Amino acid sequence: MFNKDRFLEFALSKFTKFGSKRFTLDDLAHELGISKKTIYENFKGKEEIIQESLVALLNKLRYQINECVEKEKSDPIRAVIAIYRIGLDTFKSFSPTFLRSLKKYYPNVYRLFNDFRENDVSVLVKDLLLNGQGKGQIRKDVDIDLTYELYYNRMEYIVHAENKNFYEQFTPEELLDHIIINNLRGIATKEYLNKNDSIFLL
């Protein structure tokens, strides 16, 4: 019996590893031991498979992020760290070609990913940083918009770097420490650091 959820999960794992263009429906059918006819009985084509598998991933990430934010609602800095930990753990499975091929060959699907970053993650992280500043966790002289732009651009470079795969040299925790945590340590107030320095000791 065809299990759509498992199919989409498997399909996404292959698209993110080999690229959305390179990995074909013939490859997918062969590896799953099913016919292309079965695939077309459940989906209109490859783009729909890519879209539905990506939507499933984004929904999973939303759930994980919301769960972390709720857990750390009294401590915005911890919530920001948790969000980026989820992101870096997720991107580890993405080949450098995946998002580039998605943007080039399936722009409508790529827009879903971009909207998630811009409308979900960006807004949430900025709000958390502002909240942290309001709670006295982040220094008043820190420009939150600039801080977030630096985080965003560093993550963009990690994900989209054409000639370098950072995950071949560094673990997600090492990347998290150097991209996010070191900066948060630098912008946190002395009062916050005195009470919470352990969260920066990974």
What does this structure look like?
- This protein is mainly alpha-helical and about 200 residues long.
- The protein has one domain (about 55-200): Tetracycline Repressor, domain 2.
- Helix content is about 75%, strand content about 0%.
- It has ten helices and no strands.
- The model has no long low-confidence stretch (mean pLDDT about 90).
Outline of the structure:
The protein has 202 residues and is mainly alpha-helical. It has ten helices and no strands.
Span of the ends, CA to CA: 45 Å
How many domains? Answer: 1
What is the CATH architecture annotation? Orthogonal Bundle
CATH class: Mainly Alpha
The unreliable regions are none
> How would you sum up the major sheet?
none
Order of helices and strands: HHHHHHHHHH
The overall strand count is 0
Number of helices: 10
The CATH topology name reads Tetracycline Repressor, domain 2
Mean pLDDT reading: 91
Which percent bin holds the helix content? over 70%
Based on CA atoms alone, the radius of gyration comes out at: 19 Å
Structural class: mainly alpha
Envelope shape:
elongated
Strand portion: under 5%
Pfam families: TetR_N
GO molecular function, one term: DNA binding
Protein name: TetR-type transcriptional regulator
Organism: Zobellia galactanivorans (strain DSM 12802 / CCUG 47099 / CIP 106680 / NCIMB 13871 / Dsij)
